[in-house]
Amino acid sequence: MDRAVVAVARGIAAVLVASAVLAATGNAAVPRTLQLSDLRKLVSLSGAKLSPDGREVAVLVGRNDFDSDRTIVDLTLINVRTRQSRILVHDGDVGALAWSPDGLTIAYIATPKYGAEKAPQLFLLPMLGGEPVQLTHEKEGVDDLAWRPDGRALAYTAVPPPRNADAIAHQENAFDVTEEAWTAQSPATSDRLYEIGTGDGSTPHAIGDEALRVDGGFTYAADGRSIFVTRITPGAQPNQYLAREIVRVDIRNGGVTTIARLSRTQLDPIRSGDGRHIAFAFTNPYGAMQIEIGRANADGTHATWVSRRLDRNVEGAAFTPNGALLVIANSATQRRLFLLSARGVRALPLGALSATGSFDVARTGAIVFTASSPTHPSELYVLEPGARAPARLTDENRWIESFAIGRQRTITWRTRDGLLADGVLVYPPNWHPGARMPLVLLIHGGPTAASLVTFSALADVFAAHGWIVFEPNYRGSDNLGLAFARTTVPHIASVPGDDIEDGLATVLRLGVADPARIGVSGWSEGGLMTSWLITHDTRWKAAVAGAAVNDWVGYAAMTDAKDFTPLFIGPSPWTDSAMMRLYEAESPLTYASRVRTPTLILSDANDYRVPTPLAYEFYQDVRATGTPVKFVIWPVLGHFPGDPVREEDVYRQWEAWLVQYL
């Protein structure tokens, strides 16, 4: 399932925000505990990019505006030495950015503030002064960008207008379905690659022909004459996510040379500083749930598997000045930065920090990255060469310091086949030894994700109610290596279900939780596991199942992620009766008559990833048993509401149900 939602359990409220207020008792200031409404002041940081000289970093700073129901994003510049910051573009709706090779211009993608255009376009911002200049006018908008090494042009991707635009305008818009999701209103589309000069009056030109269907990012070769890009394999459909390959495209004649095959990831092809090598992602040949990093010469020769010794699901990479690769991956209950070189694997000294996804490397070797700690939301940090610890560059979320945050710890247990599993316990701020509190399970999505010992807004709000929060990393989680992740195949619900039950038993043996007051909840894969657990165990006092895969047969037919079920369960259930029995055996819907737990079901009305009809099926079947059940739906398209007001409402409904029954 989507990585953008896979981390719901560990950072599910990361786009909400809060107010910091001190409550006074006598003359002493007593820290408040977090409430959901407090989270309205949470600030997000993303897209960090260092200037070529390493002196400044551009970063996107997001704050939610509940009056307008949108996130306001400022493109902000921070001096690495002085920590001084200034806003370059206020409320620019910026989605991506890149420094020019000479450091004199920042290119970024944003929706124009003025005029009739409502799709994101490419802008240039001169760093020596002047207003941003809009460079493109693509009807369907611009998706990604990259600078040519000489700085005189940029490449970008955009969806071209459909060939039958006139017919569509006259309602002649019927289309044949192939791999489209059940929510599709048009055939699946893909990007084209374009290049545009940075001078006045420049016009874009397409690179390659229509057969070059681009998906993801790209980078120029060192000479600027060709581009490395991820394309959809010829003959495949866009929703077949594993059908991807890295190719090198000659800008002049459109010639294509295949470099390597890979799976759909958030890592795009990148070029080393000297231009001699590229790095790319590919699927581990022994298990598709783990993404690896490959390195090759710029001509595609001598490809090597550089992340083999790391044995973690890599989520991003960058070259260092000496040609090593810096990568990010979950490891145990921390998200770490690792350096991969000929000498082996080295974890960088982050202390208690967990990286949150955005990082960059300067020519000096300095590393900037966003990270959070167990008691502090995400900030921007720098790790200088030779430093023993990172230094914080921002203090956007200092409001949290006046709040009491519950202690977190890692717990471990053995799975039924002898593997070591782990999870996170979050204690209420007022917990004391000997106290037995209600327990809430908060199950992460994925399954290729993990719960971490780091700031988790929803878990901290739950803990403030006086609940122990247990966040289990079941088999399929990506924090303990491939052997742990792949043993969930093909039993994608029953095996993780056993792991969660065994982890819960370990928690109860600690004597910190009341075994008579346990709730279970999660979104996406976490919703699936919630539905599974309430159909196989009746101990729960309350359950909240968000965007749950209740029926794998229906999921396989209607989702946009067409590669998921073949990889994690097996071929189409319509191929033979044994496969149908397996799909049904791993579906909570098969056992809906067993539910006795008061259950809240949550979903978007048009969820393309986990089809909404699956929630309707489960709701009606549980309702027929007479068990208390409620189904709340938000009339939006997507796997999770994308606006602040509805996101907060999801958590409010979630919280209220647990309060009612715990």
What does this structure look like?
The chain has a domain at 403-661: Rossmann fold. It contains 12 helices and 40 strands. The strands form 10 sheets. An 8-stranded mixed sheet has the order 33-34-36-35-37-38-39-40, with helices on both faces. A hairpin with a 2-residue loop joins strand 26 and strand 27 (344-347). It is globular and about 70 Å long. The two termini are 30 Å apart. Residues 1-28 have low confidence and may be disordered.
CATH structural fold name of the domain at 403-661? Rossmann fold
DSSP helical segment count: 12
CATH homolog superfamily of the domain at 403-661: Alpha/Beta hydrolase fold, catalytic domain
**Which consecutive residue ranges, at least 5 long each, have pLDDT under 50?**
1-28
Principal-axis shape: globular
Question: Biggest β-sheet, characterized?
Answer: 8 strands, mixed
- The overall average pLDDT, rounded, is 90
Provide the descriptors you would attach to this structure in a database record.
Rossmann fold; 40 strands; 8-stranded mixed beta sheet; about 650 residues; disordered N terminus; about 15% helix; single chain; 4-stranded antiparallel beta sheet; globular; alpha+beta
Summarize the SSE layout with pairings.
Blueprint: H1 3-6, H2 8-11, E1 23-25, E2 28-30, E3 32-33, E4 44-50, E5 56-65, E6 70-79, E7 85-89, E8 94-99, E9 105-110, E10 121-126, E11 133-134, E12 142-147, E13 153-158, H3 165-169, E14 192-197, E15 205-207, E16 214-220, E17 226-232, E18 244-250, E19 256-262, E20 270-271, E21 277-283, E22 291-297, E23 304-305, E24 314-319, E25 325-331, E26 334-341, E27 344-347, E28 354-361, E29 367-373, E30 376-383, E31 391-392, E32 403-404, E33 408-414, E34 420-426, E35 437-443, H4 457-464, E36 468-473, H5 482-486, H6 494-509, E37 513-523, H7 525-536, E38 542-546, H8 552-558, H9 564-568, H10 577-585, E39 599-606, H11 613-624, E40 629-637, H12 644-661
Parallel strand pairs: 3-32, 35-36, 35-37, 37-38, 38-39, 39-40
Antiparallel strand pairs: 1-2, 4-5, 5-6, 6-7, 8-9, 9-10, 10-11, 12-13, 13-14, 14-15, 16-17, 17-18, 18-19, 20-21, 21-22, 22-23, 24-25, 25-26, 26-27, 28-29, 29-30, 30-31, 33-34, 34-36
